[in-house]
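Hi everyone, sorry if this is the wrong subforum. Our group has a chain we'd like a structural model of before ordering constructs, and none of us has done structure prediction before. Sequence below.
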Amino acid sequence: PDGIDLESAGPMFCGGITVFNPLVQFDIKPTARVAVIGIGGLGHLALQFLDKWGCHVTAFTSSDSKAGEAMRLGADAVVTSDSAVIADSAAIVLPGVGAFADCMGNLDRFHLTGPIIDFIATGRPFFGICLGLQLLCTEGFEFGRHEGLGVVKGSVVRFSGPPFDGKDRLKIPHMGWNRVRWNTQEPPFDVVSDGD
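Answer:
Right subforum, don't worry. Here is the predicted structure as tokens:
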């Protein structure tokens, strides 16, 4: 357009083409879920383009200031290891992948054990998936004894006995659906019927 200073517009034009062209080239649909890893430079443009394009955008960052900025620029969600961002969240999802000790080691390395325990104590929603739920226990015995978060008093141990030993043993880990039989009617299990 007439009247635009080309020296100022040049870098923005270059950045825009660099970010926008792949959306068209790879046929990214407005309904797509897209991750932006790194919120700086071109990441800022990617968040805005994808948001305006109609995509569901998840930003990945380790910086408190960039997490808030990513949301303002159009991210629908932010994945972060910043304890301040986690402490200020409405809810936490902790998907655990790998071994008990390794996962706890990473939580310790990023100084997240205290913030997670403190967050749970507030009563806000916490959703632990698989190992993320097991870590709530006092200890786990996968490849030795390892301390857990200690939110739930108990131990995570390997299944043993006839269904899990021998030629016709049940597969571990077991993936699938089963009926649940309750031994207690204590919260939070008091709202689930036996056999659900």
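For your construct planning: The mean pLDDT is 81. The radius of gyration is 23 Å.
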